[in-house]
Amino acid sequence: MEIITKNSTANNTSSEINKRIWEILETVPDPEVPVLSVIDLGVVRKVELTQVPTSTCWQVEVFVTPTYTGCPAMDVMKMSIRMALLQQGFTDIIITQVLSPAWTTDWMSDIGKQKLKAYGITPPQYKQAVCTPDSFQQEEAIPCPLCNSYNTRLVSQFGSTACKALYQCNDCKEPFDYFKCH
Questions:
Q1: In 23, 41, 58, 89, which residue has its Cα 20 to 30 A from 178's Cα atom?
Q2: CA–CA separation, 164 and 156 (whole Å)
Q3: Does domain 14-104 have CATH number 3.30.300.130?
């Protein structure tokens, strides 16, 4: 392990180091949905590098926003981010939690949404709506990630975690999680 210091990175610009940090963060998995990285999930808002005058090392500050306030996975994500950076030689690390603006599924990457579907979880949908003939109320149309049918039904507002809902496909009969929009 090389400790990343100003001297050892003399040939590297801060933008190259910043790029390296983002690449490292791409390898940090979401503990609840391990096919997603914290970058895919959109919880990393920004990274700041600071040259500390009293130190020979770069200070790395990573700003994160939880998917919802009180998300139990956030502590694990922050620890995993710290460990990944430490393993790559960064020693002066600050993880700052930012609650405003609130996280939204719009921050998830398109690649992350594709990974969710391949994993068997329907990614957040744009607010599609279908009208039910008996009640004329709006319902969100959620496709099955296995057979792509929209003939699905809500089983529970909460799935395997609070940020997912449990659905079942009426065609292939398989249950599946839906990553709720918020």
A1: 23
A2: 9
A3: yes
